[in-house]
Please model this.
Amino acid sequence: MPNLNKRLCLLCAAAAALCALAPAHAQNWPTKPVRFIVPFSAGGANDLMARAAAEGAGRVLGQSVIVENRPGAGGTLGADVVAKSAPDGYTFLISAAGVISNSLIKKSMPFKDEDLVPAVMIGLAPSVIVVPKNAPYTNLRDFVEASKKGVGFNFATAGTGSTPHFVAEMLNVKYGAQLQPVPYKSGSESTTAVLGGQVEGTSEASIIALPHIIRDGKFKPLATTWTQRISAYPQLATAVEQGFPDLQIAHWAGLHAPRGTPTEILDKLAAAVDKAMHEKATVEKLKGLGIEPIGGTRAEFIKFTDAERKRLGEIVKAARMQEQ
Model:
């Protein structure tokens, strides 16, 4: 019996030591470079927001933040890398809407939704609905009403479950539009299809669409699909302002972590990103590109992702977007 008591005391002491170690580890974090995994190719909205967040957060934390691109499978490949990483605060996912919608649409996933936990919002690139410059429509309502005649319109998307796909289905489900989603491999291919007249329209992230609108004049913009006008192009009305209150969606980027990452680390990261997203130089740089810096707290990002999962899930079911 004395030996048993001694072993129990040793186990309790070891457990207490581990509990004391976790807060100390979080307090000292980070002691080495941190990785931000971008599940898309370099140069897109998600990648640019990742690099702005990495630069700013690294400055605040006093440690290097390395951006690593792992594109593939609609963002699932990079997300899977992070979901299976050690929850030690050194690997994070630059998340997008796919981290919510992929499991709603795909027949199978390599990880569970709960394997990734929200840390903080970075920012968003509002989506812009565009048509060829010679199209007869002057606003979104004209476009939607015209689509209801005849065989409807083809609407380019960046694949099943992409933001343009949701834009099309929101207009179909909520407002009776007749838009046939046409999947392309990327946003650049879908915008090329609009320029070439292969489709009647698409929606694309502001960072991609605005140069074609402002510099080249090749697109006619009909609406932005976020709740506020784009800082870099305030003359474009929102879909909400044009009578489409349920058409609210953007190309957003946030940070998710492997399940089990200490909350102290998540809060510290959130505070660093939030500070970075409010620095004058970062704000001016991102807004000049058509990106709206957001930041905020971890609790605010959790609330946002929960609401998006519910809202997008309803569209997936109504439009039967699930893979068969």
Observations:
- The first helix runs from residue 2 to 28.
